Amino acid sequence: MGGYGRGELSPGSDLDLLIVHDGSAHEEQLAQFANALLYPLWDSGIPVDHAVRTRTHTRETAQQDIRVAMGILDIRTLEGNVDLVNAVAADVAEDWRKNSKRNLSQLRASSYERAERSGELAFLLEPDLKEARGGLRDINALRAIAQSGEDVALDRLSSAESLLANVRDVLHGVSGKGRDQLLLTEQDRVAAEMKFIDADALMLEVARASRAVDYVMDLTWHRIDSSKSRGIFKKSKSEPLGKGVIALNNEVTIDSSADILIDSGIGLRAAAIAAQRGLPLSVDACISLAEGFSPISTPWPRSSREDLVTLIGAGSAMIRVFEALDQEGIIERWIPEWGHVRFLPQRNVLHRHTVDRHMLETAVRAAKLTRTVHRPDLLLVAALLHDIGKGFPDKDHSDYGEELIRPLALRMGFPDLDAQVLALLVKQHLLLSSVATRRDLDDPATIEYVTSLVSDPQVLELLHALSIADGEATGKTAWSNWKAGLVADLVNRCTIALTGGTGIAPAEQLELTPQQLSRLDNKSLTVTIIERDDAHEIEILSPDQVGLLSAVAGTFSVSRLNVRSARTRTVGEAVAMNWIVTLDPNASLPSEEALTETLRKAIAGEIDLAKRIDERISSYRKIPGIPVPPPVVTATNDIATQATVLEIRMHDRPGVLYSVARAISRFGVDIRAAIVSTLGAEAFDTLYVTDFAGEALTEERAKLLANQVESYLLTQY
Description:
By secondary structure, the chain is α+β, with helices and mostly antiparallel strands. The chain folds into 5 domains: 2-98, Rossmann fold (3-Layer(aba) Sandwich); 102-229, Four Helix Bundle (Hemerythrin (Met), subunit A) (Up-down Bundle), CATH 1.20.120; 239-334, no CATH class; 359-506, Hypothetical protein af1432; 514-716, no CATH class. The chain is built from 30 helices and 13 strands. The strands form 3 sheets. The protein has an 8-stranded antiparallel sheet with strand order 6-7-9-8-12-13-11-10, sandwiched between helices. The longest helix has 32 residues, at 199-230.
């Protein structure tokens, strides 16, 4: 039975033997037979686990003990009555399928218990090849699940099983013991025996194999859960989620009508949607994307870059989607630099993950910090790629990472200034932790040193968030409350010391042409639509009036136009607006005439925007998704513009800008200008407001406005 039954016995493994009889022999005869068989084995030092049972007794025992049942599922006749053994196997197989609900529940519980006890094989310094998550025991469990009639991708396990079994065999031989834990002291010898260059190369392949097993295990349980929730006879229904992307059977997949060769951005779009919904990306979708891979044009279009940021920003839900794509080799085709760090081990006590998984875990932590920075997109990308320079023995990983990240960022379509910031973040990602714990923070030279390297407060803000995310992802040994406090103190001192800076891709004020200024003088509403490859630009010129921004934003929302960015500017008694929008799935772009008429009615109050947007928000609340941090609203007075600057940072939602503008209008202030950005799945809106006399708000009133807007957003979303 077990491994011996499958013909996969390792040198140090037990022999699992079952002596089956028809009940006609006396106990004394059975004892004599068993002793004659077993004593020579025991005398030779071979460990044996055995049982003597009838067919009926075997069936009853297997029904009561899942371990016995799983052993018999792999039964093999050594000698004797083949028909009797086949009958025992048939009994147990029939009961296994009949009681699959109970058996699978027990299998799942035991799998989770083992993972809790033994950890994840791919990320352990000294992994247990059999018991850890993604190990040989999980492969046996997957076979048993398949024998219950469930769909299991066993074909994806053959190379992983072969590698793990071979490593286990060599380990038993090298150690001279039947132990399955691959200790650091034995990894070099096992690697040499298996003709690997070194232990790192061995552990990389072990990580690759175990992650393949873990992926199939997760996929299997998801399919089982989806089948249960859908019901046996209930017809599957697809739901459109984006261009060429649908939800089907609790998975996100590619619509059969989509052309992945032409639509090169569909993979990132599907991944972003899946992660934000908290759903897996189907294996079929990943295979299709790999087989029909179409490179994204260089530089990436804005939509693909934002989809990447949206994927990373989904937090822990991102890992499952990212791993599915990585299993098919898609990630390194998008980001070739990823290939070198893929499955790369870190054989030190500080790190608990491989390099690639550590960067994913850092991105998960960074996603929780997006409200603390002005550029969440740069934080998330830096977190994902901060250790991209590792794995080159003759290079400092921070310096080499800086070399790699700048051209990579430019390929992704980031402007040059943003690429420079990303390069600085990667190069200096250890700076704050190192200085805070090794230098005297009361020494002015310490502050001067840091500010000489990071001279912009917003870059410092990003570096602080990256340091926190990196430390938390590394583990408690590398990041503690004490260390976090020191870093925060250092950042605070440096922030005070910094009096200026270049800024990060500063938002440009809306510049107007002479023709636009002339049309503004006409004091009439005009709308111009310019179609672009992956978005649409809409220019609006209108007389200024209270509630204009909310009317325009509301009109876009009910027209199913998603705002990606906006700039507005008040000139005298008129307002100029420039919007970049994308379309909802199955929505069509309205004509200039139709949009102008809808806007006119909205501004005049002839359309109940509030009701229609509330309906959209209500529908959105019913859609399952991932938990996100709450909105953050701050207000400060800007001496240069004589206005109060209101900053809103929150997860993007339908009607966000409308809700913000509506709340501000209710407060009785005037919106003089707006700079609106959607960075991945994060909305970052900056509004310049004044009282109706054109003055900035008092400090007390500005704080009250920020609190009111934040409270309103919390109730809405």
